[in-house]
Amino acid sequence: MSETPPNTLQYRFDGPEDAPVLILGPSLGTTWHMWDRQIPELTKQWRVFRFDLPGHGGAPAHPAASVADLATRLLATLEGLGVHRFGYAGCALGGAVGIELALRHPERLASLALIAASPRFGTADEFRQRGVIVRTNGLDPIARSAPERWFTGGFAAAQPAITEWAVQMVRTTDPGCYIAACEALASFDVRAGLGSVGVPTLVLVGSEDQVTGPAEARTLVAGIPDARLAVVPGASHLVPVEQPAAVTDLLVRHFSTAWQPLPENATGHVVLPAAAPAAPVAVAPQPAPVAAIAPAAAPPQTQGVPDTYDAGIKVRREVLGDAHVDRILEQTDAFSEDFQELVTRYAWGEVWDRPGLDRRTRSCVTITALVAGGHLDELAVHTRAALRNGLTPDEIKEVLLQAAVYCGVPAASRAFRVAQQVVREETTPPE
Q1: pTM as predicted
Q2: CA-to-CA distance for 161 and 217, rounded, in angstroms?
Q3: Residue 331: helix, strand or coil by DSSP?
Q4: How far apart are CA 54 and CA 287, in angstroms?
Q5: Which of 41, 191, 211, 340 could form a disulfide with 237 if both were Cys (CB 3.0 to 4.6 A apart)?
Q6: Bridging pattern class, strands 109-115 and 86-91
Q7: What distance lies between CA 121 and its chain's CA centroid?
């Protein structure tokens, strides 16, 4: 395995060196081997470039802070190889990278395919909650539940080798990089920008996908001006693995017919790390047709609020969670709206957004102050926030022990009861 600098990605090439480059981007928790079944056919026409996410498949554990960071690292890798324009197909998080490329670097893309993708993946709360579970319990609970998120029940039962392969892929991922990827997805929201995607786009989704299903796919098709929809029957989230033949056929047809001419075609050197196991052979289904959907207008832009309100509401949501902030805002009326604006603007837009302390430290300070003041309702809210800001349950325990010395044992005793319940709720893996 060659050395992979922090600003680039681990990669491999397959196919003729003089063919146009087609990039395949992986889903969170997977490796480039999720595309193994597509390679024999795709390499007949394209020089296929696959990459691993940081900390996945034996790649160096250099966490990426955002989807934009992943896109930047991918472009830096391609620059070093002399690859200037390319087709791109990405699954889930890999699809988010594709959207980012189309919005910020459209001159690099010849064609685009988005698989099991969405302009916004669930809610920020869901992904930050997943990060809390991994930080507390490791990746094993996420790994064990991966097959039910990725595959239909019938497929998982009929293909135990693939199911076990999926579990092991997640288990061997670096936890810190996985958590960082969850944070990247939590902050990813390009709904307002879809109308700016100017690349011929195929949106492909499994009919049984419960993670980013047909509804999310139709949102992409409605927002992207030159997009077509393909729904693959009998497939869930990891559709390239579950229905390889259908996906391969759709990709070949799309990139064969919707490939903008390349002014030049350069490729790089091959690097072939062998850290992750190859995917077992899946059952090949019948291909599904591509159904054309008429484009629709992009979602309306939201009105901005001056001063520090915009920054404040963003930080408030990131720290406390969308569900909590939405509940507060729904309860706001003419009597309380000025107070909520004050809190958002000054507490969150100015103090919490200052660069002098990181959010972990601010959570420690806030918990201590709330214990001292006996504000147990707010303590529950900020214990959840502390977990999502990166504190572990053991670190929160240490903060409360420190508070017991300086704020008093009775106050700390009440605080421990509140925090214990919150930690139990937030860190228990889903059944």
Answers
A1: 0.79
A2: 29
A3: helix
A4: 32
A5: 211
A6: parallel
A7: 7
> How far apart are the C-alpha atoms of 120 and 124, rounded to whole Å?
9
| CA angle (38, 165, 183) in 5-degree steps | 85
- Tell me if 141 sits within 8 A of 429, measured CB to CB: yes
d(CA 194, CA 103) in angstroms, rounded, equals: 8
Query: Cα 191–195–7 angle (5° rounding)?
Result: 65
Instruction: Retrieve residue 135's tokens.
Output: 């930080």
Tokens of 94: 């890999």
Structure tokens, 4: 């992979």
Dump strand ranges (E) for 263-312. Answer: 291-292
The tokens describing 375, both together, are: 């504000």
CA distance linking residue 113 with residue 244, whole number of Å: 15
Q: What is the pLDDT of residues 112-127, one digit of tens each?
A: 999 999 999 988 888 9
- Cβ-based neighbour number of residue 328 at 10 Å: 16
User: What band does 145 get if pLDDT is binned at 50, 70 and 90?
Assistant: very high
Name the strand (E) or helix (H) holding 372: helix 359-373
CA distance 236 to 259: 27
